[in-house]
Specification:
heterodimer; A: 244 residues; mainly alpha; Four Helix Bundle (Hemerythrin (Met), subunit A); 9 helices; 0% strand; B: 226 residues
Amino acid sequence: MWTWFYRLASPPSVYALSGRLAPWLLAAAACLIAFGLVDGLAFAPPDYQQGDAFRIVYVHAPSAWLSTFAYMLMAVAGAIALIWRIKIGHAVAAAAAPIGASFTLCTLLSGSLWGKPMWGTFWAWDPRLTSELILLFLYFGVMSLRQAFEDPARGDRAAALLAIVGVVNIPIIKFSVTWWNSLHQGATVARFGKPTMVASMLVPLLVMFAGFMLFFVGVLCVRLRAEVLNRERLATWVREAVAT
Amino acid sequence: MTIGLSQALGLVLRRELLLSLRRPDQLLQPLVFFLIVTTLFPLSLSPELSLLRDMAPGVLWVAALLAALLSLDGLFKADADDGTLEQLVLSGIPLGLIVMAKTLAHWLLSGAALVVISPLVGMALGIPVSAFGTMMLSLALGTLTLSWLGAIGAALTVGLKRGSMLLSLIVLPLAMPLLIFGASATDRAMGGESPAGALYLLGALCVLTTTLAPLAAGAALRITLE
């Protein structure tokens, strides 16, 4: 029953499939992000409290969401690879880590640019901000642990375990605005009941979410191809794929 | 011959304690390091007691964190180098149990010792005697949690030549919540407020890591020793 899955998860088919998907994903992401940016920056109404500065949300919120999503993906892929010994999982985790770290950095930078006009400071030692910073350090830890071993298979497994341990930080990030008195505003979109945002502001935000998500998956495909090629460089199918 | 689990736990614990007690210089090093680090702050910032008092909980916790990291580096190293660890892995005793015994022994001789000398440092930094109880309780819970977290880090880096830097990189982010709650508990007690909330959270973290960290560290050892 699972043979189709194993065939799909084998390095050559992942290499071929991600190569076929990547251009479509990236093209769709470019369209959505372009639309979302124009709609969000030019046509959405300014916030009654924050004025035009709120428009940073169109970059900040999707990157924040992806910074945690990429981490979860990395941990789940690592767990799958550890438990069922599906080695493509390690390749996915290794490919996702730098992208997730970049999104985390992007979140922190865009957040501090937003913080200057709103809170009067680039950085505050606030629970949400601190836990996001810890996430960045966790990414660094996982990435350098993977590199530290001479035997790459061992590095993969050690990094996967550390990624799983680090998952405890994800609920802390998510609920930090609820548990502590935070400067950071609470959830406005992902909540039970109606979002507390008017449709003309919300639509470009959702479009940006979708665009960032597709962008992430597209870049993941590209990085995964490089990762698979590097890992399988001694296999015959790579020689054939490179030769043609 | 088969031995029960609690018996195995006791045997490994006893062995670890004996081995450590026969090298008293190595036991003292983290404590001296702790004292030296706390001395650096008055020297570098200001010897004024009112200023020091404000920073005392943070200073105490940062110093405890660094001292623990320094000693955790060797948690599995000696046993891994001479092959004892492999024998323990092959012995059929659950690996989590061995990790638990080794970590407990490590905590008894480093973390608990640190808690015992902490009033000395607290006095020097101007922490009022009324806050000593909270300070010691938070340090006791915190250093135990730290030992569990460090056991995961030490297990992940045991086979590496230059693992100590990486160990810090792995453990420090995970230990940050500990630092926040630990320092705030002492801070509240010094200000005359109830430190219960922060202490409960520290206790929760301690229970969480005591139950899960031995399993994670055992799995990590299996990966790095394979």
